[in-house]
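ok so i was messing around last nite and threw this chain in just to see what happens. nothing serious, just curious
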Amino acid sequence: KKCSLRGTSDSKEWPSPSALWRDVSMMDDWYIEAKSYWDNEAPISMDGVLGGFAKLDAPDIKMSRNLMLKLRTDWTGSVAADIAAGIGRITKSLLLPLGCARVDIIEQSAGLLSAAPEYVNAPDEKCRFFCFAMQEWQPKFKEYDIIWVQWCIGH
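result:
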């Protein structure tokens, strides 16, 4: 059984989904197209970062908080990384309210990242902002208690 996948600019066939993921020939194009979308097309807003589904923010935050509190009841003083953070939705509504001492916001879109400080509205010592893609991020060993990667991980 063949797996036919079509992109926006070309077409290529793979014999299976695993063969697709082993084929790195298109990886650069995928990353370039993704960056272009977030830099040039996505609205810099809650609706934009949630792909038109801003109404999912409250239930998503509630369920994420429930998950975090099942893992550990006290996150006070933790250091977190919010990967592909967009405008800082998770930082503002989940990680800082959980008690994180610091959140590093990692986002490849300069436009989204430039909106994050105002959106998050946290003291300077609480957040650091880094503009690069998640595939380029190389954290130091044991630097973070929490590494939050959501939504983008499936793309």
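not much to say yet. The CA atoms of residues 79 and 144 lie 5 Å apart.
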